[in-house]
Write a structure and sequence with these properties.
- The structure holds two protein chains of two kinds.
- By secondary structure, chain A is mainly alpha-helical.
- Chain A is built from twelve helices and four strands; from the N terminus they run ααααβαββαβαααααα.
- In chain A, strand 2 and strand 3 form a beta hairpin.
- Chain A is globular, with a radius of gyration of 19 Å.
- In chain A, 48% of the residues are buried.
- Chain B is mainly β.
- Helix content of chain B is 11%, strand content 36%.
- A five-stranded mixed sheet of chain B has the order 5-4-3-2-37. In chain B, strands 6, 7, 8, 9 and 10 form a five-stranded antiparallel sheet that branches.
- In chain B, strand 2 and strand 3 form a beta hairpin.
- Chain B is globular, with a radius of gyration of 23 Å.
- The relative contact order of chain B is 0.14.
- Classes of the chains: A mainly alpha, B mainly beta.
- At the A-B interface, helix 3, helix 5, helix 6, helix 9 and helix 10 of A face helix 1, strand 21, strand 22, strand 27 and helix 9 of B.
Chain lengths: 283, 585
């Protein structure tokens, strides 16, 4: 039994990580929709997936001369369909969000690498540029322990297998520690500060966005630092929200996503710059 | 790769971003086209002597950190002619110990007089008894006088109308002395025996005493799928002033935090059904199976869970069919639930179809609403009140609430875990909406043009021809704020017709009776309501605008007993008093 498990573990590790991540997000989609109707309409899924895939195929052909792998477009499309909650059943956020997410990989580049996780970029842009049209997922998983257990279990397994468990665990640990710090500063119930991480928006964030191999930095130590930095910036946004700082109000609806949008590309750009230096050799 | 390709991609990328901005601006401006309404509303509350100010409840100190949230309910208004003088009177509820409810008798000269004290229906908000959340009128004993049911966070109270503006508390004798934390009720005759029955909704669990809390674990355990709310109850009228709880036998004990209920025959089988707007669950339609049982039906409501707060009925498209409008919550950046306009396609498709978009879908944190023909053109307008907690203008609770909104229910079920609100606002200072339908061009908000610009935290809205001028006036009850009485001035030229129905085989109040007017090639259907909207009840008289049409072809009345009555070519521009025929036609 142990031998079989180990063999399975090795086989899983040999797979393209995108297959594992694709499986995970499909699981989230199926469970969320079947149990809680999390999508809000299948037309959204069709549009998001369709535009992401079409954009990926078109731009890869145009820019690189060959059709690219659509796995990441698949992951991005489902993420957008789950996370974007538009006003009055608008569908253009899914179409434009899908195009912008994929196109950002081809436009917002530095030294050959793209700087933003595609879903993170699109959602951040929509939340900031179209607050009258777009909100972000605030659904909950209800109190179904089984669903939560499945998502967390598979999530942790898969990020471990793709070598990103340290990112997830670092972020979660920092979030919890900073929640205690924020509680000490603003008062109020501690559980209220920890509560967000129990929701599906955070699960999508920690298993898909912050662990994206293409936009995380190249060293394990660097990834730990970046994950911690995201948590710190998020905590700063949250403290600003608790103190009603008007200038930062656009960031309050989605603190972790916007924190990643701020920290992620800076860290990635720095990593790409350092990687171009002859003396730098990532481990 | 040629640089022009990269340039093309970059240009498309930039264009898409600009398109996002442009489309967002268009969304913001949707439904604000310059339309001159054919009516104008002027607040005459003070001039009319209606100086009612609602006061929210004070609660157990364990809830002090979120008291403004919990104590955000209780303002209500219900309309009835309590002394049968032909002039509609107004009943407002208060929600704090020691603050009385008000019964404004319509003097018939444009002014009102609060007679609640003398009538014995004022001093009902007392420690140990609870505080009022709303009231509905219905002649439960068919003696020709409208009786009063007050629902509370506390003990229900039933007042028998003795005539001459005097009332007697008959709650205990009626078998209704029951502690419920209720925010809605409706009179209707579910078994068509000619006696009005009573359906009372539960919000918080009935074991919660807000002034002596045993636990702070009193909140919803899910924002979308909660089933831990107070149990709704159906009381069957046995006659002789007595009621029997038949909830379990009839299968209508929903616990989904119901905030509003409306009763009407949605599927055309002649039996009144129950439409529930639930705050933490999907809307529910309980179809009446010939008075023997109710069946929770899958009619296109079950997969869509928002924060239903009002159950408003009206013939939106002039199809001779009752549709339902349910209010929900929208807040820029945080949440776009969208109001629901449930178009009734039950006979054809077995379901409702969603018809809300644009300004109909987004009315802020929307509460009570009513459909009525405010300009007498033959089409309904939609009056929506909104706003939740108006505190400090520069402090919003939305961010703090978002911390727990998506969390596991075990966290926020305990009120202790809610972040304190302090003096912050939560969707405060919102402007009421007055929507007119422009047919295929959609709905347009004409509130400002029509004279409605208040930013009160509106809860209940009721429509009534208060001054007997053949136009619908609007009364609004605001939470912890003054009531508004809008006198309607309509552009001359449009005709109208109205009906006051008197049941004989049916309940005397004729609640549940449907009137269809055929005129000018249009059909309009209205129902006599025993409570509708949120914490409100409209004038019992049914008002129809006729536009320029100078003639009504036919009026069809379907009485709750099943009797069908036809009136050919009734005179227009007047109120017709119609008594149910003794024998079915």
């Amino acid at each position: 039994m142990l031998k079989h498990t180990r063999r399975l573990w090795v086989r899983l590790g040999q797979l393209d990580p995108r297959y594992l991540v694709s499986f995970l997000i499909t699981l989230v989609l199926v469970l969320g929709q079947a149990r809680y109707g999390i999508l809000g309409g299948y037309d959204r899924l069709v549009i998001a997936l369709g535009v992401c895939t079409a954009t990926e195929l078109a731009l890869s052909r145009l820019v690189r001369g060959r059709f690219g792998n659509v796995q990441s477009a698949y992951i991005t499309g489902i993420s957008l369909a789950l996370l974007i909650k538009p006003r009055a059943d608008l569908l253009w956020p899914f179409a434009l969000g899908g195009f912008l997410a994929i196109a950002s990989k081809y436009v917002l580049q530095y030294r050959g690498g793209h700087l933003w996780n595609p879903s993170n970029f699109a959602i951040s842009l929509l939340v900031l540029a179209a607050p009258g049209s777009v909100a972000i997922l605030s659904h909950q998983w209800g109190n179904d322990v089984a669903v939560n257990a499945v998502i967390w279990g598979f999530g942790l397994l898969i990020v471990a297998r793709v070598g990103m468990l340290h990112v997830t665990l670092t972020y979660v640990a920092c979030f919890l520690a900073l929640a205690v710090v924020r509680h000490g500063i603003v008062g109020g119930p501690l559980l209220g500060e920890i509560a967000p991480i129990t929701g599906p928006m955070y699960q999508l964030f920690i298993f898909f966005m912050i662990t994206d191999p293409k936009t995380t930095v190249s060293t394990a130590r660097g990834r730990v630092v970046v994950a911690a930095a995201v948590a710190v910036v998020e905590a700063a946004i949250r403290l600003a929200g608790d103190h009603h700082v008007a200038a930062l109000a656009p960031l309050y609806p989605a603190p972790p996503i916007l924190a990643l949008a701020i920290v992620g590309p800076v860290a990635k750009a720095l990593d790409l710059y350092l990687a171009s230096k002859p003396a730098y050799s990532p481990v | 790769m040629p640089s022009w390709r990269r340039g093309a991609v970059a240009a498309a990328f930039l264009a898409a971003i600009l398109l996002v901005v442009a489309l967002n601006r268009r969304t913001d401006r949707a439904g604000t086209a310059a339309v001159v309404p054919g009516f104008h509303l002027t607040d005459v509350a003070a001039a009319a002597g209606v100086r009612f100010v609602h006061h929210r409840p004070t609660l157990d100190p364990k809830l002090a950190h979120i008291a403004p949230l919990i104590a955000s309910l209780g303002a209500s208004v219900s309309v009835a002619d309590v002394n049968n003088d032909g002039w509609p009177d107004l009943y407002f509820t208060n929600s704090r110990f020691g603050f009385p409810n008000a019964l404004y008798r319509n003097r018939g000269d444009g002014t009102f007089e609060d007679v609640a004290g003398a009538a014995g229906v004022a001093d009902v908000n007392r420690p140990g008894e609870g505080v009022s959340m709303g009231a509905v009128w219905g002649d439960y004993d068919n003696d020709g006088l409208e009786d009063l049911l007050i629902y509370k966070w506390g003990y229900l109270q039933l007042f028998h109308n003795l005539g001459n503006l005097h009332f007697e508390d008959v709650t205990a004798a009626a078998g209704l002395r029951r502690w419920m934390n209720s925010n809605g009720a409706v009179w209707f005759d579910y078994d068509r025996d000619g006696l009005l029955d009573l359906y009372v909704t539960g919000y918080f669990r009935s074991d919660v005493d807000f002034w002596h809390l045993q636990t702070t674990r009193i909140m919803e355990n899910s924002f979308e799928f909660a089933a831990n709310g107070g149990k709704n109850r159906l009381f069957h009228n046995l006659g002789g002033g007595r009621f029997e709880d038949v909830t379990d036998r009839m299968g209508v004990g929903s616990t989904r935090w119901t905030l509003a209920v409306a009763a009407a025959d949605f599927n055309g089988d002649g039996w009144p059904d129950l439409f529930l707007a639930n705050d933490y669950g999907p809307e529910e339609l309980y179809v009446n199976d010939h008075g023997g049982r109710f069946v929770l039906s899958r009619v296109g409501l079950e997969s869509d869970s928002k924060s239903g707060m009002s159950a408003t009925l009206g013939d939106v498209l002039n199809r001779g069919r009752l549709d339902a409008f349910v209010t929900n919550i929208s807040e820029r950046g945080y949440l776009f639930q969208g109001n629901n306009l449930r178009l009734n396609f039950l006979p054809e498709l077995g379901r409702f179809q969603q018809g809300a978009d644009g300004v109909v879908a987004d009315a802020g944190w929307a509460w009570g609403a009513q459909l009525g023909d405010l300009d007498n053109d033959g089409r309904n307008e939609l009056f929506i009140v909104n706003g939740f907690v108006s505190g400090d203008r520069d402090r919003s609770y939305w961010y703090a609430m978002s911390k727990i909104a998506g969390a596991n229910g075990n966290v926020f079920e305990d009120a202790r875990n809610w972040p304190p609100i302090g003096t912050a606002s939560l969707s405060g200072y919102e402007r009421s909406r007055v929507l007119v339908s422009r047919g295929l061009a959609g709905w347009t908000d004409v509130a400002l043009a029509a004279g409605v610009s208040d930013e009160y935290d509106g809860r209940a809205v009721a429509l009534a021809d208060l001054f007997n001028r053949g136009v619908l006036d609007v009364v609004v009850a605001n939470q912890n704020q003054p009531a508004l009485v809008y006198r309607n001035t309509v552009v001359p030229g449009n005709h109208w017709i109205a009906f006051r129905l008197v049941g004989t085989r049916s309940n005397r109040s004729a609640i549940g009776a449907e009137v269809t007017v055929e005129a000018g090639g249009m059909r309009q259907l209205r129902v006599v309501d025993g409570g509708m909207g949120f914490a409100s009840q409209n004038d019992r008289r049914l008002h129809f605008g006729l536009g320029r049409t100078g003639r009504v072809e036919r009026v069809l009345i379907r009485w709750p007993s099943g009797t069908l009555q036809t009136i050919e070519r009734p005179a227009i521009d007047q109120v017709h008093v119609v008594t149910e025929p003794q024998y079915p036609r």
